[in-house]
Design a protein that fits this description.
The complex is a heterodimer of chains A (about 200) and B (about 575).
Chain A: E1 6-8, H1 30-34, E2 53-56, E3 63-71, E4 76-80, E5 92-102, E6 107-113, H2 123-137, E7 140-145, E8 150-154, H3 170-178, E9 182-183, H4 189-194
Parallel strand pairs in A: 4-9
Antiparallel strand pairs in A: 2-5, 2-7, 3-4, 3-5, 5-6, 7-8
Chain B: E1 2-4, E2 10-19, E3 27-35, E4 41-45, H1 46-49, E5 63-67, H2 70-79, E6 88-90, H3 91-99, H4 110-116, H5 127-135, H6 142-166, H7 172-191, E7 193-194, H8 197-205, H9 207-219, E8 225-226, E9 229-230, H10 232-241, H11 258-267, H12 272-281, E10 296-297, E11 336-343, H13 346-354, H14 358-365, H15 369-376, H16 390-404, H17 409-416, H18 420-433, H19 435-451, E12 453-455, E13 461-463, H20 470-495, E14 499-504, E15 507-513, H21 514-535, E16 543-549, H22 560-573
Parallel strand pairs in B: 2-5, 5-6
Antiparallel strand pairs in B: 2-3, 3-4, 7-10, 8-9, 11-15, 11-16, 12-13, 14-15
Classes of the chains: A alpha+beta (about 200), B alpha+beta (about 575).
Chain lengths: ~200, ~575
């Protein structure tokens, strides 16, 4: 014969419901329970948008003077290993990669041309470096002015909060930003193409 | 099946059958009460019930009262002037809580709940015929009487089966708290809202004439009617003349539904009277208000009906659900007063405390969180006032309120009548100013999407179904904890001996003799503050009061013009 099922109506009642009401309360901080962290999967390599206010990372380990192989038509930038620079004279451009972020919390790498071996740098790039330096301290907006032949730099009059930098190091930023677009060997197909080998 | 309990001496599953006209108190027909620990059953017909001074079952602290939608049972208690039980387990509130947010193909009723748990409920199919027999109000033959008692008993048996299924899933303490609210609801429904019934009847008798006259009187300001009909072409001209941009359908035609008028009247208050007029003209009857013979508006408050756990009384039966002008029919009886007490910026206060955003809490404490937001965001100077920066404040207010509802930049742009860029900037300012709030709100949404549920401080839970609505989920914690606060306040206010006529979203309407009104208001305000402190861990929310003493009547600013226009017609013509 099967045993009769017993339904228990329990839960200790500690006196009046209202006297101990705090015992019934549940935590409302769901953020701490779940602990979601934004994963950065894309970091664009580009100039700041004309309307964007941006900041540049204050830590100088987050910027890199390097050489970039740029295919403007395809919109492609390749990071070239230093030992290959001399193999590609006239093809690579010396650039400073600044880690920057806009007000929408989108981090990006801002490449600004560096002076060539003769030390020359045009007004466009001089003003861009100046804007990047300023952006270490405050929010700036950079807009090209053709009649001026340089970038104009705007700073907001109101107080804006400090940017929230993603919690990743510069090596990781480079890896995400360039992905497969890094050339470390002389037999890379892009270099072979440039040399007319394929 | 056997029930056992170490904390209750008696557990009573109870069901009444009753009838009554809309707006009146119910007349009990019979009662079935089954004690679960001993198996004892009471079958009591109305003639015996009417002689009883107290319930035939124990309602003290050692007993548990179990019912499905217990406020109906308590309305019978109150009709018989019986006290209400100390401990109430309402399986309706608990079934709602277990399944809130999930699709329920068989509904939220007792049959639906049984079906949900896979319990055979075929006996309940005869429900409709029996219900008609009961609602007929008798007289009933001996066979009818036995049939009605058997029917009532079948509901109690079903209730016991449901308890068996639900008991392992219950958190009894929190369930008892919700049960307390069902008792409060019964008391509030029993009291009802005093209505100027004489004037209501006059309006109803002359409704057609009022409508015709109203077009003539109101249309003077708009000139959009022709031969008694609303003309779209004339309305278009009015909008152009008054420089009012208006939402359109995909076809390019102006939107003319009531929701559009409602939204636009918020931005352009001069359109409220036109909205009221169009709404009045669309009604065949003055209203379907549920008013009892004693001139009081009574209807089912439908507690725990919405996903946030708020009440959802019928908009046509409940006077606070009707057009705002109609609320001027609320009038205290001679010698009596009413007070409408609402929490100041309740949603903002809840968001500020639950998220632990200190900037937001400062803004709440300033007394004007909308302007405070503007100051904190650096959008207005620190010495800005409501008078000096009225337009800016309106925009901050729209943004602050909109954020709670997950309003996007396009909707905000429409609301503040500014460009999308402007709305985007405003939302960005909010995100920058209240970073902790956004972190909390985003976390809640992530949690809901990942684990499939969220809950309030007292465990009112929403489950995420296959079509999650992120805006609703974001808003849930604010609205549902607001609902918790109102429920607690109703219980506390009633426990303090203050009579409540109605709960209204974030407010209550209380009633007292005029010479006691101020004291009762003070007690109610203290209880409301206590309720907010309980829900928000010590963060007390303030309340605002509007007093109405006989012979004055309730007035809603938004409906004043229409009400005055209608009274004017009634006075001049009738």
């Amino acid at each position: 014969m099967s045993e009769e099922k017993v339904v228990k109506i329990e839960h200790k009642l500690d006196g009046d419901l209202f006297e101990n009401i705090d015992q019934l309360k549940l935590d409302q901080n769901f953020s701490e329970s779940i602990g979601v962290k934004k994963q950065i999967s894309t970091i664009p390599i580009r100039k700041p948008g004309r309307q964007d206010f941006i900041r540049v990372h204050p830590d100088d380990s987050y910027r890199l003077p390097t050489a970039i192989l740029e295919f403007k038509e395809e919109g492609e930038n390749y990071l070239i290993s230093p030992d290959l620079w001399h193999e590609l004279p006239g093809e690579v451009t010396p650039k400073m990669l600044y880690t920057a972020i806009n007000r929408q919390d989108v981090p990006f790498l801002w490449p600004v041309r560096l002076a060539d071996e003769t030390g020359r740098l045009d007004a466009w790039n001089r003003s861009a470096h100046k804007a990047a330096q300023l952006a270490i301290e405050k929010w700036v907006r950079v807009a090209s002015n053709r009649s001026l032949g340089a970038y104009e730099i705007f700073t907001p009059t109101g107080e804006l909060p400090e940017p929230e930098w993603p919690d990743i190091n510069f090596q990781e930023i480079l890896r995400i930003a360039f992905g497969d677009y890094q050339i470390n060997t002389f037999d890379h197909p892009v270099i072979q193409r440039l040399r007319g080998e394929i | 099946m056997k029930f056992a309990s170490k904390i209750f001496q008696e557990i009573w599953a109870v069901d009444f059958e009753f009838y009554g006209n809309s707006g009146d108190r119910p007349t009990p027909v019979c009662l079935i009460a089954h004690e679960l620990l001993t198996g004892r059953t009471l079958r009591i017909w109305q003639d015996e019930l009417s002689k009883m001074q107290s319930p035939p079952y124990s309602i003290g602290p050692d007993s548990l009262f179990v019912a499905y939608y217990s406020s109906a049972e308590f309305s019978c208690h109150l009709a018989r002037k019986w006290p209400l039980p100390t401990h109430i387990l309402d399986l309706y509130t608990e079934f709602r809580n277990l399944t809130n947010g999930l699709p329920l193909p068989c509904g939220k009723g007792l049959i639906g709940a049984l079906t949900y748990f896979g319990v055979d409920s075929i006996g309940a199919l005869q429900k409709e015929a029996m219900r008609d027999l009961i609602l007929s109000g008798g007289p009933w033959s001996n066979d009818d009487r036995e049939a009605i008692l058997d029917y009532c008993q079948s509901d109690v048996s079903a209730l016991v089966l449901l308890l068996e299924k639900m008991a392992p899933k219950l958190n009894l303490k929190r369930a008892l708290l919700r049960g307390q609210y069902m008792a409060a609801v019964a008391k509030i429904e029993d009291r009802g809202i005093p209505i100027d019934i004489e004037l209501f009847n006059r309006l109803e008798e002359n409704w057609e004439l009022i409508k015709t006259q109203l077009i003539q009187n109101v249309d003077v300001n708009y000139k959009v009617f022709e031969d008694g009909h609303f003309r779209l072409s004339l309305f278009k001209k009015y909008l152009i003349d008054n420089n009012i941009p208006w939402p359109k359908l995909e076809t390019g035609t102006l939107k003319t539904d009531d929701d559009t008028f409602k939204e636009m009247a918020k931005v352009h208050p001069q359109l409220q009277q036109l909205r009221d007029l169009r709404s009045i003209l669309s009604q065949l009857k003055l209203s379907k208000l549920s008013i009892g013979k004693d001139g009081r508006n009574r209807c089912l408050l439908s507690a725990f009906q919405t996903r946030t756990g708020r009440n959802a009384p019928s908009n046509s039966k409940f006077i606070f659900g009707t057009a705002t002008w109609l609320r001027s029919l609320i009038k205290p009886e001679p010698g009596m007063g009413l007070a409408y007490i609402d929490w100041s910026q309740q949603e903002f206060g809840i968001a500020a405390k639950l998220s632990e955003d200190l900037h937001m809490q400062d803004a709440y404490r300033s007394g004007d969180p909308y302007l405070a937001f503007g100051k904190q965001a650096g959008a207005v100077p620190p010495n800005a006032t409501k008078q000096s920066h009225r337009n800016e404040r309106d925009r901050f207010k729209a943004c602050v309120l909109g954020v709670n509802y997950g309003m996007g930049e396009k909707a905000l742009a429409d609301r503040i009548q500014q460009s999308v860029l402007e709305a985007r900037n405003l939302l960005k300012k909010h995100q920058d100013t209240y970073q902790r709030f956004w972190w909390w709100s985003n976390g809640a949404l992530d949690y809901a999407m990942f684990y499939g549920k969220l809950w309030t401080v007292f465990g009112w839970t929403i489950k995420v179904n296959e079509n999650p609505n992120p805006r609703m989920l974001r808003n849930f914690l604010i609205q549902a904890n607001g609902a918790e606060m109102l429920r607690l306040a109703c219980i506390l206010v009633l426990n303090e001996g203050v009579n409540i006529c109605a709960p209204i979203h974030d407010a209550i309407l209380i009633e007292a003799p005029i010479d006691e009104l101020d004291d009762k208001i003070c007690i109610a305000q203290n209880a409301m503050k206590q309720a907010s402190k309980i829900v928000l861990s010590g963060f007390g929310l303030n309340t605002d009061v509007e007093k109405i003493k006989y012979p004055d009547r309730f007035s809603d600013r938004r409906g004043e013009e229409t009400w005055n226009a209608i009274l004017d017609i009634l006075t001049k013509n009738l």
